[in-house]
Design goal:
This protein has 483 residues and is of the alpha/beta class. It is built from 15 helices and 20 strands. The structure holds adenosine-5'-diphosphate.
């Protein structure tokens, strides 16, 4: 393993104990194919032990004043911040993103801890005016109980801190199953949580190469009262079904097919910068990456030419290379998907403006690509590309743009670029997504509610709404006031 990462564990955390197992699975560096470490391949029985631990820890954690829980979260944040460089190196090693992006993700992941450490203190109930003189009413907020989190590989730290900090701030305990592609960052976070004084059982992190069995154990156990999942819509549907048996609360952050609409009246420089930020972050592997770039005919040629200049300035390379801006894709399936979407589109008449081929840096690298003449019916406009490919569709009118943008079962992010305020507002209202970036290609932060509509998910993370997801409202009615 890389020297900078040796201080972090390769064991799982259950009930405050470090758990190893003879059965392990390897973690690879996608830039080189080298093995970084072996981690425990836990099973359903181990998952139930983690639930036992979270269940046993729940009453005492829930009973702590929010202010005390906040102090623990802030200590965790301080340790994460102090280890920013080591965590970023670890993330780049197992996930592939450029170091600068990895450092930003550590900071971004930390903002959720900071936010929820404070927001947990504001889990207010209400007093409710009475309906008769003999009774009084209030509501109180209580933690939902034991939670389970299943997280993806594209943000190996932030997707965990966003879920864990909101759960812990609310007074819940949690079992986290990270992606099998990026378990090392999760285990590093577990170590820092232990060092910060998170009590045994409050946070449990279990790694497995058998996500289906562990997922089944987490979703079928009636002691788990909530599941929070970030990943593909297909897996989200399986988990939604599995949670029906015990009527769990659910937060699902699923796939997207983000439209980015560039109107004739856009500021060209702003539109190109926004497209680059949204499209090429993490080599195009985020669920809010612009998946369909809709460009109005009056600005089309100018926009494509300016985007080409910007795309050709990107530097493909291993994330640890200081000037790299586009790292490898996560695995061979990712590369195959990109290749097949491009092949399908070009066979139906789309044109490659730049890129379009694997890159020489290694088997998982792909050259940043622009493809024009894409039609809404092509697979590249229907599926999440999850690679560094800007797919461009021409449109004529505002009404066309809205119709094309909404013609998808997904509804996570959308973007529009226009200097006409009334148009921007009107189109933002018409877009069927949970998030709209207006003249902005980046909008994820701790204060804004993040989440999708349609088949992109349920619930919101971050913001005030993110805390609510981990709270139940209890209605208290006091009678006998006239006696
Ligand atoms: P991606 O395609 O981005 O890897 P997935 O939805 O496959 O997205 O993976 C997201 C998370 O869901 C990962 O932690 C993965 O291990 C987990 N996962 C995949 N399949 C299942 C399943 N059947 N049950 C529970 N978790 C699963």
């Amino acid at each position: 393993m890389n020297a900078q990462t040796t201080t972090f564990p390769t064991a799982c955390l259950i009930g405050g104990e470090w758990v190893t197992k003879d059965k392990t699975f390897p973690v690879f560096d996608p830039a080189t194919g080298n093995k970084l470490a072996d981690v425990p391949d836990l099973d359903a029985t181990d998952a139930r032990r983690a639930i036992d631990a979270a269940h046993a820890a729940f009453p005492a954690w829930a009973a702590q004043p929010a202010k005390e829980r906040s102090k623990v979260l802030k200590r965790w944040l301080a340790l994460i911040t102090a280890e920013t460089e080591a965590l970023a190196q670890l993330m780049t090693a197992e996930q592939g993103k450029p170091l600068a992006e990895a450092r930003s993700e550590v900071a971004y992941g930390g903002t959720f801890i900071e936010w929820f450490a404070e927001e947990g203190k504001r889990a207010y109930g209400h007093t409710i005016p009475t309906t008769n003189t003999a009774t009084r009413y209030i509501t109180i907020k209580q933690p939902v109980g034991v939670c389970a989190a299943i997280t993806p590989w594209n943000f190996p730290i932030a997707m965990i801190t966003r879920k864990v900090s909101s759960a812990l701030a609310a007074g819940c305990t949690i079992v986290v199953k990270p992606s099998e592609e990026t378990p090392l960052c999760a285990l590093a976070l577990a170590k820092l949580a232990v060092d910060a004084g998170v009590p045994p059982g409050v946070l449990n992190i279990i790694t497995t190469n058998d996500a289906a069995s562990v997922g089944e154990a987490l979703t079928s156990d009636s002691r788990v009262r909530k599941l929070t999942f970030t990943g593909s819509t297909d897996v989200g549907k399986i988990l939604y079904r599995q949670c029906a048996g015990t009527i769990k609360k659910l937060t699902l952050e699923l796939g997207g097919n983000a439209p980015m609409i560039i109107f004739d009246d856009a500021d060209l420089k702003e539109a190109v910068e926004g497209t680059m930020a949204s499209k090429f972050r993490n080599a195009g592997q985020t669920c809010v990456c612009a998946n369909r770039i809709l460009v109005q005919s009056g600005i089309y040629d100018e926009f494509v030419a300016a985007l080409k200049v910007a795309v050709e300035k990107l530097t493909v390379g291993p994330g640890r290379q200081p000037d790299a801006t586009v790292g490898p894709l996560i695995n061979a399936d990712g590369i195959e998907k990109v290749k097949s979407l491009i092949a399908d589109a070009t066979s139906k008449g789309a044109k490659i403006v730049t890129g379009g081929t694997p890159a020489p840096q290694g088997p998982l690298f792909f050259t940043p690509t622009i493809i024009t003449g894409v039609e809404p019916a092509m697979a590249i406009a229907k599926d999440e590309i999850f690679g560094p490919v800007a797919s461009i569709i021409r449109f004529e009118t505002e009404a066309d743009a809205i119709r094309i943008a909404n013609d998808t079962p997904y509804g996570l992010a959308s973007y529009l670029f226009s200097q006409n305020l009334a148009r921007a507002w009107r189109v933002a209202e018409a877009l069927e997504t949970g998030l709209v970036g207006m003249n902005s290609g980046l909008f994820s932060n701790e204060v804004g509610p993040f989440g999708g509509v349609k088949q992109s998910g349920l619930g919101r993370e971050g913001a005030q709404e993110g805390l609510e997801e981990y709270l139940e409202t209890k209605f208290l009615c006091l009678g006998g006031m006239n006696s």
